[in-house]
Amino acid sequence: MIVFAKNVVTLDASRKIIRDAYIKVSGNVITETGERKNLTGQLEDEIVDASSLTLIPGFVQTHIHLCQTLFRGMADDLELLDWLQLRIFPYENAHNRDSLKASVRLGLNELIKGGTTTILDMGTLRNQDVVFEELISSGMRAFAGKCMMDSNSLFPSFRNDTKAELEETYRLAKEFHFKNERVGYGFAPRFALSCTYELLCETAEMKKDFPGTVMHTHASENKGEIEAVRKLYGKENIDFLDSTGLLGDSCVLAHCIHLNDDEIKIIRKRDTAISHCPSSNLKLGSGIANIPKYLKEGIKVSIGADGAPCNNNLSALTEARLAALLQKPFHGPTSMDAFTVLKLATLDGARALGLDSVTGSIEPGKKADFILIDINNYNKGLNESDEGICSNIVYAASDSDIAYTFIDGKCVYQKGVKEVYDQEELLADAKNQKNKLPGRV
Length: 441
Description:
Blueprint: E1 2-9, E2 17-26, E3 29-35, E4 47-57, E5 59-64, H1 80-94, H2 97-113, E6 116-122, H3 128-138, E7 141-145, E8 147-148, H4 162-176, E9 183-189, H5 197-207, E10 214-219, H6 223-233, H7 237-243, E11 251-255, H8 261-270, E12 273-276, H9 278-283, H10 291-296, E13 300-303, H11 316-331, H12 338-344, H13 347-352, E14 370-373, H14 386-396, E15 402-407, E16 410-414, H15 423-436
Parallel strand pairs: 1-4, 5-6, 6-7, 7-9, 8-9, 9-10, 10-11, 11-12, 12-13
Antiparallel strand pairs: 1-2, 2-3, 4-14, 14-15, 15-16
Helix pairs in contact: 2-3, 2-15, 4-5, 11-12, 11-14, 12-14
């Protein structure tokens, strides 16, 4: 397959943008990139002529809750612990296989149409098999795992005993970890307040049995959460998590808004990644993470939309724009430029997941995970410099500008032509399952 594009934003080490460009794909791998005028040899049977569009790596979102998409608009205007206690835990507890399937499909549909090609997803307490089945059938590249909870003072019925949590997690990791080459396992103890010390330590040990897995948890999102951890364990949140063996170079911590200097040093020392979720942090009133400081300290930072009920959309472009804008009043207008943020949303996300040799940039040898976006329209496209192209994507583009999404060399979405799911059927099923949910709370 050969894809022609107006521009190719490589996001590789050279930071180059190729004009009047092409990429060649063999199977699921990018084999060649360059200017169209330099293309030699016989043209392939399959040509994607996107000569007016810009090709960029697919977005990598490192903190998603597909299980919550069904709850969009049902948990507004609450801060974190109330949001969990009054809405999210009761709704997740009420999920059955059918409602979970509808929720996951709804989320995957939105992510793929918005150009996200790789996710790190945190599941819910039960029926995690459903999440894996839908990830595999959708074509998404992902790490995912059952949410682990053996302690829950906020909603006590939404938990399992420690032994059951560990056994079910081991079964799922053994059954699903890269049995499909696109989908790996992500161990997902929810956060310090929903997991016992024993569960966290045992999970860290269990991970060693499954090379290539990811550790995924929430940390230091809310001041009330931090105070509760301090009261329970006599330690700061990151210090406590580190004491369990959870942190490491394949661990992703969602949020990390409220960190002191010692905690930042621990994260840097462990080479642990932070997933920045600006929309969620604003909507729950949690605060604003000091991303420029984390980057300056050499910490891996990536981007995630979190769940639909604490964001209300799953758009990587929305998160990228907010990630850039939020820091400027505090750290100056140059603190988060468009190229830096675009890299956070692509290559740095892949790096956080240990997939930077697989995806996240457009270069030979990497998987063909890319999107084609229209930035040549009335509200974009006037500035065609390298900086202007990145600016148009980060500051002006929206999901409606995504024309194609390719994952693993396959076109999984083409605007107006190809969808992952039948849209009417998808929405009807989601509404039906959403209406049934409150009756089980």
